[in-house]
Amino acid sequence: MQRVAIRPEIAERVVARRGKLHLFEKLDAKRTALLVIDMQNAFVAPGSPIEVPAAREIVAPINRLAAALRERGVPVIWVMHENQEGGRDWAGFFDAFVAPGKREQAAAALEAGSRLQALWPQLEVAPSDLRVAKNRYSAFIKSDFHKTLHERGIDTLLIAGTKTNVCCECTARDAMMLDFKVVLLSDCTAALSDDEQRATLENVIQQFGDVRAADEVLALLG
């Protein structure tokens, strides 16, 4: 499991700027939701076309956290990438960022209803959980997801899933700029490398939200 820490010089920079390292000393369970991003077969399964091997290592931590949050009345939301056949609803990505010989395979892996588009089966999903589809890196782009959250009185988002430096970070950035409080979960997110993981942790804590481990978040919720 990727265990990387924010570098001391970055932590010092944050403290010098705002007087403390962490933004939040307490969280309100009634106004908080857990977003679990892209923990689908396409990203988690061994040998899948867009595999993130470290994502398998965060399955157990996500399951433990989700169970503890449900006990506190915190909703768990599974955010799943879903595109149209051939990725035609995001041709700007599939045509430009994926090699011609791999486009069809990558797009098919995330088509609605495909085996690879489904959640990884070892994730423990409860009947009360919500599922939200996205077709961009950020859950907030080309969607009314922010309205759904506001209607439920949610103003604080805990972000888990993969890739840390792509869909998790994009969602965290947009959430902050839509005035949500953001906590990126350092031990419930996974990237393709430690360097990419650390880069997002440091980006988020400096500009977009807090960075905490799952147990720290549970302590803040009381």
How would you describe this structure in keywords?
222 residues; alpha/beta; 2 domains; 6-stranded parallel beta sheet; 9 helices; 40% helix
Structure description:
With 222 residues, this protein is of the alpha/beta class. The chain folds into two domains: 178 residues, Isochorismatase-like (Rossmann fold, 3-Layer(aba) Sandwich); 33 residues, no CATH class. It is 40% helix and 17% strand. A six-stranded parallel sheet has the order 3-2-1-4-5-6, with helices on both faces. The radius of gyration is 17 Å and the shape is globular. It starts with 7 loop residues before the first helix and ends with a helix. The mean pLDDT is 95.
Major beta sheet, specifics? 6 strands, parallel
Helix content: 40-55%
What's the rounded overall pLDDT mean? 95
Low-confidence stretches at least 5 residues in length (pLDDT < 50)? none
Topology (elements, then pairings):
Blueprint: H1 8-18, E1 32-37, H2 41-44, H3 59-71, E2 76-81, H4 91-97, H5 100-109, E3 130-134, H6 145-151, E4 156-162, H7 164-177, E5 181-190, H8 194-208, E6 210-212, H9 214-221
Parallel strand pairs: 1-2, 1-4, 2-3, 4-5, 5-6
